[in-house]
Amino acid sequence: MELFLNEDVIKLLIAAGLGALIGLEREYHSKSAGLRTMMLISLGATLFTVISTKLGNDTGRIAANIVTGIGFIGGGIIFRENNRVVGITTAATAWATAALGMCVGIGFYHIALVASGLVLVVLYVLLPIQNMIKRRNQLRNYRIVCKFQQKTLKNYEMLFRDLGLDAKRGIQSRVGNTITGTWIVQGSEREHEKLTKILLNDKEVIEFDF
Length: 210
Description:
Layout lengths: L1 H4 L1 H22 L6 H21 L3 H19 L1 E3 L2 E3 L1 H18 L3 H28 L1 E10 L4 H11 L3 E10 L2 E10 L1 H12 L4 E5 L1
Antiparallel strand pairs: 1-2, 3-5, 3-6, 4-5
Helix pairs in contact: 2-3, 2-5, 2-6, 3-4, 3-5, 4-5, 5-6
């Protein structure tokens, strides 16, 4: 019983609990780093911190090495998918979870608890606000391939403007009788959907993606 009342063991249990709370949110949203990963990150950071204090080593140097190690994990979480970068929020969550574990490891329980609450607020409470902003204003990369005609691509740029979308021209190229245009288009989700329907029904469009 005395073993389980040991302060260091209690630190590990607290770290596992905080990591689980954060990991549950990531797991629920099917992220690459979920429940087990966040628990292990929190536990590992706490354990390294506890060991460094027991050995009397420079805790600042240990903390710097923990941050470096989390950087490698974060690099594996972030990846590129369909012209966009995903996993940044999960990588940042892993970074924050490691910091929470370090707080627990040196006995700053109140800071760890408050910070855990703030992390959960960011992940749970701010998500609907983020989604609302995305619905009202989002960026999409469009690539349209169609038969070459004079001012063909300019006609599509006029279509963007008519729908209230802000388009920035990208690379445009012609191969034989076809011409390809790319744009970074910004606007509401509703207007993007209208544009997609128009392009799907446009007989002049050979292919397009976004």
